Amino acid sequence: MLHHIPIPRGPIELAADLYLPDDNNGVAPLRAVVVSTPGSSVKEQIGANYASRLAARGIAALVFDPAHQGQSGGEPRDLEDPYRRGEDISYAIDALNVVPGIDPERIGVLGICAGGGYAVHTARTDHRIKAVGTVVPGNMGTSFRSFQPDSPAAALDTMAAARTEENRTGELARSNWLPDTLEDAAAAGLTDIDTTQAITFYRTERGGNEHSTNRRLARSDSLLLGYDAFHLVDELMTQPLQVILAGRIGNTGSYESGMKLWELAPNPVDLMVIDDAGHYEMYDVVEYVDAAVDRLAAFYSDNL
Hints:
The chain is of the alpha/beta class.
């Protein structure tokens, strides 16, 4: 069963979908999971693929559009603020706490790609989260620092000048998350399999969605450069952890991030590597997603 619900978040609302088991008899309170989605995605994409499958396995799942993105409120649009992304998860838990039939003492989180880093960062300090599951988790800070042609500090100098100019003109710049087409990618020399699969998912009918703009507010980038999703994990994140990785190691950094997270976490419980799968194939290839969700459902059943 799918329910569209609003999540109050201060002066704005987050748009969310709550997936409930079809055969729930309402007698026993349900385990529940908040799903934290990849950067640039909206709730109808990767999050829905995982949330609907968890519900089919008896676990309620709540997936939402981040503030400033999709159908959620918040200005300016297309902001990717990693700290606000973490706060969104806590507001989603607030909302779950008052849903009839949900056990507030058995709420976990599932983070996918960049959402994996956001989920981990939030779980360190929000111990209402009782279990942390991740699929191809990424650390956006590490990724953005590695993308810079010069040093991250030099990039911040450039971004500071750009923001000064934005303030002068009142015009906010935006960047593409991905090339809009495979032709644009080829023209830019981006022909690696991960970029190709990302475009094929996000920018075609396969996984595209009208509410996913493929645009990132430029002033997001300085926030991402200074972010570390795994900061103090070894001291603060005591919850059971599950890490699911794609076995074909590409250039997304998720395999490396996932293994680092596994090594840092005080309570690592389950590590799964899905052979032959690529990062973006973990978004919607049925064979791989079903294998991941079977393992996730077992993890949450044991730890929530």
